[in-house]
Amino acid sequence: LSRKGWAFFTVFSDKTQKRLQGDHNEIINILLCDRDLFAPLSVTLLIYFCSRAKNVVAAARPPVRFFSPDAPVVDLYLGQLDQVERLRSVAEVSFIFFYAPWCAHSMAARQEVQQVAKKLAKQVQFVAVNCWWSQGKCRRQNRFYHYPVIHLFYRRFGPIEYRGPFLAPYIESFVLRVITPLTYLPSRGHVEEFLSYHEPRVVGFFQFNSSPQPPGYITFLSSALQVLKRDFRGVVRFGVVTNKQVAGAISLTEDETVFLHRRFNSSLIFPRNDLNFTSEAICRWVFENRETVLQWLQPPGTKSRLLEEELTKGPALLLFVPHDPLGSQPNIAVRYHSCDNSHHSSWDKSFSFHSLCCQSVVLPQSSTSVCEVCLSLSWPSFATSPLHCLFPPSIQGGDIFQTYLRRCCLHQLPSPVSINSATAMGCSNFLDSYSPFSQYSACCRKVEPQLNESQAKEESEMQSVPPSLIPPFSVPQPEGDGITGLRCQTNRTLRFYVLDVALNWPLAVRLGASDDRGGDGSFAAIVNLKDEVHYVLQHTPAATLTESLEAFIRNFSAPYSLLQRHLVGEEDRKGSPPRFLITELTTSSFLPSVMDLQKDVLLFYYTQWCGFCSVLNHIIIQLARLLQGNGTITVARVNVARNDLPWEFMVDHVPSILFFPRYRKHLSVKFPDNLPITLPNLLRFILQHSGSLHHVHKQSVETEGPGHSPFLGSEFLTLQREVQALHHARERLSQQLAQLWRDNRRLKFEARALETENAELQRERRSLEEQHREKSRQLSEAVRRLQELADASENLLNENTLLRVLLRALTDRTEAREQAEVERKETEQKRSHLAS
Which segments carry the region annotation Disordered (predicted)? Predict the structure, then answer.
């Protein structure tokens, strides 16, 4: 209850009903003391509070202009929505910018909109509306959940909401698409050029002979604007043909026909007999039947499942390029999806004509030489029965491969020298002619690995060859380009996605791009979400981006892919940091530290979000302190949530502990899950599995016998070193116990001093309590005396008052007697006077 307020409450019960109004102290006394009022069990209490103070709200400041006066933007900072309708009705294209003056995004987009407005002010009407002013019409009629919001209107069609980034180049591109939603195609050359791009293209044929605008032209124009509402990038382009001879180039003869061009499948014509000829129906029909070769992705920057939905469809090539990419990347995607025989090379044609199923086999002479053995379609045994891809065991095995391949397929099997030579490009060993009755055919070629920077450096050091001379690609190009129709020749199909490098560079850095963004700023990676791997394109300066991408795609699609899985991890600390008890490992330092043959490594797997891992930290620290003087044992840990490791070193749960003994790293041991992770168990685990020198001389022991003196000497030295290590550990334990004994003695003395101080404080407390009781008694006596004096004073006052009353009564009685005596004397005088 507020002391400055009043309370009004009503109490209802079965037998009583009472209404009270007053100050809160009186109400509380009634609630606590009135038993008769709250005796019934069923009581409902309703309390209402209202403050005496009036609600005072400061009036909002009047809004001011948001855009600068020299900007070609009509700023309706009072939210005049009726003026927006008036301005939009007289303009061909209108750009409406809804903003909130306090919004940081609106302030950042203001400069971008002003740049676009200065360029397109003659073609577009730019209007800005303050949709936050409470007294404005815009605030009352619209409910926006974020700011700013951009709407475009093409005449009466709209609104077309812009959903892209608020940057001037993107906004300008979108506005230009709205200004010209249709491309006029006056000749056959324009039609061929319009249909040559990789984006989906829609062509409408309308004759303008009978009327200025045919009836279906406005619907076709509206469908182009409907597509812009769904995709702000305008991937689907719309063109219009008005000449019948030009329309004949794409086999259009009937007027008011909508044609959807598809590169890899049959092109379609809008079925007007089955679907209504409306803009929504045309837009839906285009998106349902279009071919998507290259898809732009634009993550919203907030929590979304856009990338997850796309990556779950299969392996994806993510290409980070500038906003206006070169034409080479789309051409790569188009050639990759071109499975028509007309696009294949000559050896592709013959190979696909004579065979239906193939199997790649590695030559036994070299692990990088591969032959593709295929079953022929023209073999008589398959003329009347369906073809099954069943190869004899000799094809799969390597023992009699040369004999079988020489007998069935090739007149002269290429030697390892010719296969490994630099002149053997593609299928150069393919026979010029084949018998129509041959069962098998073969094509042999060499597959070279793609070297990353570290591997290229090691290779150059070993062979004394400059890194620039190392071939950057794994599969040499065949007679064709090697990428055309690759989608139909492999089971590892790729999906192509393009992202803007300026907006999504943090994502590229997380995938493995360098922070400096060198070169042209482009970056490419293949992500296979199902296999939980991704590969990064190692772009070499000697090759162009197109060549690197082609080799990158061929390496991924090869049957024996030599691409190395990219591991993402934390950066190592620069410089020489001080030596810690526990070594923190990262992706780059993991293998050199763990696979050190001269040290036993105890590895602790943890994550920053694992609570059980945090509980075990003190045990790992105690273990590292005990083993601090031993130079052969390393205690390390790795954060598996931030550092990718090779598959053979991963664990299925955290926390986990692995031990890698020296001299025999291949015999790593995992700490048993059924044992509690304690310091004695860890020490016993390390002593049980630690490495020794007899593993180095294992072969000599087997040949020379167990009684050889050098072996016994090395074994004795090893045991002596282990005993010395145990002595050192015992000395450290003794020192720690002595320190603990000293600390315990010091704590005992401190405890005694504290007990003495506590006893003194208890005595002082009791003395103070006695003084308090004495003072309380004295105060009580003084109060009693004061009360007696007050009672006596009150009695005296009462007696004084009574005496005053009696005195007043006596005074009145005396005055009455004197007056009567005076009147009697006067009467007697009158009588005597009358008598005389």
Answer: 816-836
